[in-house]
């Protein structure tokens, strides 16, 4: 996710990392690089200018704190700014009412129907009685699609194939839900390829009729600035409650995620990262996203996914070890094995600080970790728990045992050390005086 942006910002920050102190000159050049990175990521021009000005002012205004290097300070400022840009606090999805009603809007192809299916599954897992409603009266295929998603997830789908009036379909669906003990109704509406008046009138009428407790606007993050403009038009008419960003698993540049909040002034509530239904829908936490963009990983989301996919005990154990810097080869191996089961590999790799470097430039598939797994599996229990014990003769034995080379073993150890360093940094970052962690 956002690889180019991450790399560009990383490069910009590298320059200042070697510096002994913050000066106008090094701040100016770093800020310029960051602005360029943001523009290249298709961030709205005005937004990029505003936030880089703010970053500069803040960096120059900081008295250097004891024990805080310019690189660290700057990373923290940028991380805070990106977090702020994306809304600072996580805004939860909290539908209320009996039944609660949710309206889904967006352009055709944005991922609306897929999202509706994923949301249905999520709500069902929370123990809710869910009814999904196919209110796209123009494309019978859209009704079929939602029905298929309903079958796959075991969630009931309401349709009226002969009815061409979305308002009455939505009203009837709510009535049906009341009569059948449903606690939440999610209405998937028709989308067009571009915004047109009739579509806007229609969805406005549906909104008025069912008075949803949450209206969510779904947007394809691959469309960058267009996504932001479409959001603005929809918001003027619908005054929606939150944004759903889809297709963040692709090579999205990041512009939509970074600009939409400031331009539309509505929170991003969910992000979707794949066509699969399981484990591809996450609530949106601005701070975690900022940390991912800065290559600091997103350990918290990873732990949450782990919690979702595996037993709580394991997730709690990992979280504790990460916080205490006790991450060892056992944990790495178990993480790699979990990751392979937990969803889109590329997406998950971005959540573990430094893990992306282990598989860089390789086809990312489940084979990518094979040599790493083989090496770790050749270790004795003592070696796994004590990464520092690996001397030259042990390394040679590992290479032979795993069918790799000593160089591959060395690489793994080096990268593992970098990973641990990165994790320490993430932990430390929350301890900079006056710059406590917010949200997330
Ligand atoms: P709708 O017209 O807005 O209802 O869009 P669909 O839900 O039919 O999605 C359009 C296409 O995008 C389909 O091929 C989906 O499988 C795909 N899609 C939806 N969400 C995601 C996502 O998060 N990631 C990826 N890679 N594809 C997605």
Keywords:
single chain, 440 residues, alpha/beta, Four Helix Bundle (Hemerythrin (Met), subunit A), Rossmann fold, 434 Repressor (Amino-terminal Domain), 3 domains, 56% helix, 10% strand, disordered C terminus, binds guanosine-5'-diphosphate
Summarize the structure.
By secondary structure, the chain is α/β, with parallel strands linked by helices. The chain is built from 20 helices and eight strands.
The strands making up the biggest β-sheet line up spatially as 3-2-4-1-5-6-7-8
Q: Which structural class fits the helix and strand makeup?
A: alpha/beta
Overall average pLDDT: 84
Name the CATH homologous superfamily of the largest domain.
P-loop containing nucleotide triphosphate hydrolases
Describe the oligomeric state of these chains in a short phrase. single chain
Count of domain modules: 3
Work out the number of β strands.
Answer: 8
- What fraction of residues sit in β-strands? 5-15%
Q: Element order, helices and strands? A: HHHHEHEHEHEHEHEHEEHHHHHHHHHH
Small molecules (ligands, ions, cofactors) in the structure: guanosine-5'-diphosphate
């Amino acid at each position: 996710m956002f690889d180019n942006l991450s790399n560009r910002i990383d490069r910009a920050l590298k320059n200042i990392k070697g510096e002994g102190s913050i000066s106008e000159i090094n701040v100016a050049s770093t800020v310029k690089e960051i602005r360029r990175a943001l523009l290249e990521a298709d961030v709205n021009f005005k937004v990029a200018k505003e936030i880089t000005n703010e970053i500069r002012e803040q960096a120059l205004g900081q008295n250097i704190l004891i024990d805080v290097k310019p690189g660290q300070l700057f990373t923290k400022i940028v991380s805070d700014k990106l977090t702020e840009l994306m809304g600072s606090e996580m805004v939860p999805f909290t539908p209320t009412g009996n039944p609660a009603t949710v309206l889904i809007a967006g352009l055709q192809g944005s991922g609306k129907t897929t999202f509706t299916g994923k949301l249905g599954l999520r709500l069902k897992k929370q123990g809710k009685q869910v009814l999904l409603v196919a209110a796209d009266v123009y494309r019978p295929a859209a009704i079929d699609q939602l029905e298929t998603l309903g079958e796959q997830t075991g969630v009931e789908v309401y349709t009226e194939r002969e009815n061409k009036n979305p308002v009455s379909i939505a009203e009837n669906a709510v009535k049906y839900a009341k009569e059948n003990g449903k606690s939440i109704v999610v209405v998937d509406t028709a989308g067009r390829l571009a915004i047109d008046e009739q579509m806007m009138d229609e969805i406005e009428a549906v909104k008025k009729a069912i008075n949803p407790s949450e209206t969510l606007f779904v947007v394809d993050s691959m469309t960058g600035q267009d996504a932001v403009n479409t959001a603005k038009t929809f918001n003027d008419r619908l005054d929606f409650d939150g944004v759903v960003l889809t297709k963040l698993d692709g090579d999205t540049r990041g512009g939509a995620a970074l600009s939409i909040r400031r331009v539309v002034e509505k929170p991003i509530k969910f992000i979707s990262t794949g066509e699969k239904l399981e484990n591809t829908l996450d609530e949106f936490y601005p701070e975690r996203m900022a940390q991912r963009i800065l290559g600091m990983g997103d350990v918290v989301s990873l732990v949450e996914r782990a919690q979702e996919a595996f037993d709580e005990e394991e997730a709690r154990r990992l979280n504790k070890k990460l916080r205490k810097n006790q991450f060892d080869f056992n944990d790495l191996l178990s993480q790699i094995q979990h990751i392979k089961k937990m969803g889109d590999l590329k997406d998950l790799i971005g959540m573990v600080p430094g893990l992306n470097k282990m598989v860089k430039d390789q086809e990312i598939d489940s084979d990518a970790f094979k040599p790493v797994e083989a090496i770790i599996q050749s270790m004795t229990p003592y070696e796994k728990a004590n990464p520092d014990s690996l001397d030259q003769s042990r390394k040679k034995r590992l290479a032979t045992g795993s069918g790799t080379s000593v160089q591959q073993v060395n690489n793994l150890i080096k990268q593992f050390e970098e990973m641990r360093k990165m994790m320490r940094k993430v932990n430390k970052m929350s301890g900079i005086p006056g710059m406590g962690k917010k949200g997330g």
